[in-house]
Structure formats: structure tokens, C-alpha cells
Amino acid sequence: MLIGDTSGGESTIQRDTTPPMATRMGVVGSPTSSSESGSGDCSIFEPDFDLSPLIKEELRTTIRNRRINSGKSDDLSYDDPPKPQYKLTKEEEEKRQVRRDRNRIAAAKCRQKRKQETMELSLESEKLQTTNARLREEIEKLQHEKETLIKLINSHRPTCIMKTGRDPNVAHTVHSFKYSVR
Length: 182
Prior knowledge:
- By secondary structure, this protein is mainly alpha-helical.
- It contains five helices and two strands.
- Strands 1-2 form a two-stranded antiparallel ribbon.
- A hairpin with a 6-residue loop joins strand 1 (2-5) and strand 2 (12-15).
- The longest helix has 74 residues, at 90-163.
- This is Cyclic AMP-dependent transcription factor ATF-3-like.
- It comes from Acanthaster planci.
- Residues 1-47, 66-102 are annotated as: Disordered.
């Protein structure tokens, strides 16, 4: 934008360097309002806020509009330009193929090893579950046997006391033994 100055009788023309967005926003401190700052320096530009986000958004909008007008997509994500195809030498191609083959073999070996470990863990888990079930059955059986023996002793105790009533040591041993079902 050109600004004309007619002070002093001589007409001079200055170029306004204020960004278009700042001019539209009416920013105080632009070169056109330098007389207000008191310094008289026309090159001072002191906006009250940061204009860079506004300028960036205006630039994005302009680019988007141009892309739409030219028939391109309005997507502003910038893809990397296609890299030039580098022709590999025969030796490099062989090295690449050997490396790929080794990698393929290593990957297959790793998958096989992982599969084998999974199968082993599964078998061990089944084995431990079977052992656990067998031990629980044995515990239940032993508890039942214990209850049966305690009942037998409790039912037999009065007979033992009568027969061993003469021997205090035997009677004392039988009476001091407490039988209970847990």
C-alpha cells in the first residue's frame, strides 16, 4: 500500500510494510500510526499481540484455495517427494537377498521356538492341573478317613475307660487326648 505525505509542501510516497492481516486488524503501532508513539521512527512495529498465528492461518487458507482452484486436493499434509530410484549393483542385490533370506529363516525359527514354548507351557499346565485335582481328591479322602477314625475312637472310648479303669496311666492317656473333626 502506498502512503502519500504532503507535509512541508513536498509530496513524497512511502511504501507501507505492514502485513495485510495487520492492516485489516487495525493494529496500533503500525508505521502509519508512528506519530502516536512519540519517537517519530516509522520503522518501529510494536503490535500488542503476536500476529504469527494469524499470518500462518491466512497463508494456509490462501494455499488451500489455490489448490482447490487448480483441481488438487485441499489436504495440506505434505508428502515427501518421491525418492529417486537407485539402481543396485549385482553385488549389492546379492547381499540384500542373502540378508533377506537370513532374516526370513531367523523369523521362521523364532516363530517355531515361540510355538514350541507355548505348547510346552500348555502341556505343563495340563499336567499340573491333573496333579492338583489328584491331590485334592487325596486330601478329601484322607479327611474322610480321619473323620471315620475319630468317630471310631470316640465310640470306643467308654469301653477303653472301663477296661483300663484300674491302670491310671492308660486312662489318663485316653482322657487327655482330645479328638475333634476339623
